Amino acid sequence: MYIFFFAFRVLLAIIPQALPYADEMWQGPEIAHNDVFGYGWLTWEWTRDKPLRGPIYHSLFSLLYWILSKLNLDHPQMIAYGPRILQCAISAIYDVYLIKLLTLEGIRNKAYVILVNYTLWFSLNCFSKTLINTFETILFTLALYNWVQYLQTNHNKNNWFCRLFVILNVMARQSAIIPWIFIWPYHLITAKTNLKGRFVILVINGITLLLLFLFSISVDSLYHGKLTSTFYNFLEFNLLSGMSSFYGVHDRLWFITQGLPYVQLGWVVSFIVGIYSYTKKGLFSAQPLRLLYYMMFTILILSLSAHKEDRFLLPLFPIIIYFICLGLEYLDKINWKKLKLVLVILAVISNISFFVLMNTYQDVGALKTMAVLRQRNATQVQFFTQCHRTPFYSFIHQNISMTFPDCSPTNDVTSLETYQLHQDSANYIKKKLQYSKLPSHIVIYNYLMNDNVQKLLDQYDKIESIYHQYYTDTYFEDQKDIYIQIYELHQ
Length: 491
What we know:
The chain is an alpha/beta fold. About 60% of the residues lie in helices and about 10% in strands. The chain has 2 domains: about 1-360, no CATH class; about 365-490. The radius of gyration is 24 Å and the shape is globular. The chain starts with a helix and ends with a strand. This is Mannosyltransferase.
């Protein structure tokens, strides 16, 4: 099964060309490329006095790049797509253990698990991409599988494996601690044991947290070359200072009213049926409803942050898929098979159609743009686009000068270069071009072009106009039918 899952994920990594999340490149391959090859672009999370990111996730790609360089196989195509292939190999492990986990939790029909997992558009869209949220989901699934094994068999081996995966996961992404803030105390309260047994559980939890912080601080400090904790820095930036709101503010119920329906589309009906079936076991019973409690608590904590994104729900996908499959089995149980068939058909059609739509009309121009620049032997590139919207050195794999408008978080949005670019594109571009050598290539969105900008580019020829996306929102007005235009300096 693993080989099949891996091959399927690889197809999804190579064929679709969409790049919907900046973090796919800028929190993984770009950092790894800089570490191994000595040149690249580090985003503000890595360069600030109190860095927000640690090396655990991107070190996987650093190791891959190092091996390729030692074997003289660091060709641009290998550098560009190697991390995605590696991610597919890891995601296939998730596919295998998702089935094992849901089987442990009582799902009898493994075909349902495969069907739902491979037709949820959001799963198709994320698990072949180098997103740290994907890595977080995989480690959470492995941890949860071992945890359920431990609850059912009382084997200490599974308990320690679970805790090992949790420590690794939190070191990679700090928010991965959220479900375990509930899971471990919940077990302490509900475990069928005496006072001595509860004390042992408490001590094990304390040792786990101690090891987590010791390993986290040690690895972070060694990597960044100074005493630091990305766990604390992340907490301070996102919650204590509230700077996460810089990236958008959503209402408290966003994950429930918009996030969950959006990532499931047609499967959300089966999801609701599954929760109904689950709660029939008794809402306040000790163990049977633990998955529902885990999910509710995680969503509650995530909702406390002003900034919310659909990919923050990704670690909950094992539980979401469980409820969808449980809903399908419940419809079988009450003999509503015709209704189930209709729901499945609608769910599959809605999800697959949306997946194709998103990978055909949204965020599809970035990889093509970098491929053109590489083919044209660009020596200096100036991007007049939104920040971090294309790969950089991890795709082009050439030590050339490239830059884009800065968008580091600030309390004064008008000081952002991206804001100034969209406010008056001609004025911003004029300032950028008059104080430096003219770049060999310029990359710009079509909606930023006007007569004044065109005059500034009179020494350039437009060599490509690449369709990028159907819709985007900017600081001033929404834009539709966006193209990425590439200009080349006259020879």
